[in-house]
Amino acid sequence: MKQSRLYYDSALESVDLAIADSAFTHKQVASHLWPAKKPATAYARLKACLNEEKDEKFSFEEIIEICRYVERFDPLYFFEDECSHTRSQPRTPEDEDAALMREFISHAKRMDGLMARLEKKGKF
Question: In the chain, where are the structural domains located?
Answer without folding.
Answer: 11-89, 91-124
